[in-house]
Amino acid sequence: MNLDDKQTKSAVTALVKHVKSKNANDLIEDESVIWLIVGTKKIPDTRKAMPKRLNLKYSVLQSDAEVCLFTKDPQKEFKELLASKGVKRVNKVIGISKLRDKYKPFEAKRKLCAAYGMFLADDRVIPLLPKLLGKEFFLKKKQPIPVDMKKSNLKAEIEKALSSTYMHLNGGSCSAIKVGTTALSEQHIFENIMAVVPQVADNIPKKWKNIQSINIKTSDSISLPIYNSLPEEVQSISIKHNGAKQRVEEDEEASDSDEE
């Protein structure tokens, strides 16, 4: 199943126009994140779900966003590793011991969450992080993204993580996915949406059959629809009647009791 190109482009144009109109009197125009809101018919089981990495054509990480990396101990070794591999995009490295000791109070966790635009983590420490970070990171959709610190080409591994977007299955019927910022052109936002949606469908149980709606919005705008599921399709089946085949149309939702 494919999105309607024309409707998607129209929604992107309208959303960007709305943001520019709202910011018309601002001396400094801030970047607004553009979200893809995917509504499902049935809620997926997400008790052990990790963020799903989705490939983009154009990065959605805001230009001024800083990046924090959680690592095993000792953190100094990983700082030196990043430097030796030419990784310059990571602004802060925090080892597990420091995270446990320095960021134990709720207020410390809240400030840490607000200080960085994106969090990465050595995939070996990911199981420890939910308890150490608390709910704030998950409510703000800033769950740390796993990276393989053992990769020979660590720079490429980090850059791939930073240039992707992520689907956080949060136990509800809606998921919000970053697909652009207003710093991107309308065409680039459109191309990101068209690239991401098929990957979203592939990561949802029953795929397109379980998608109710897809909308785009900023954090403070209304939602603009780009896809809505039609009512359950009528299925056509064949049965034999008096030696001949008869076409019978049955609605998926019909029950045996309705025929009695």
Automatic annotation (TrEMBL):
Pfam families the UniProt entry points to:
Ribosomal_L1 (PF00687)
* Name under which the protein is recorded: Ribosomal protein L1
Q: InterPro entries recorded for this chain?
A: eL8/uL1-like, Ribosomal_uL1-like, Ribosomal_uL1/biogenesis, Ribosomal_uL1_3-a/b-sand
Entry GO MF terms: RNA binding
**Compositional bias per record (Acidic residues), positions renumbered to this chain:** 249-260
What segment(s) does the record annotate as region Disordered? 241-260
CDD domains listed in its UniProt record:
Ribosomal_L1
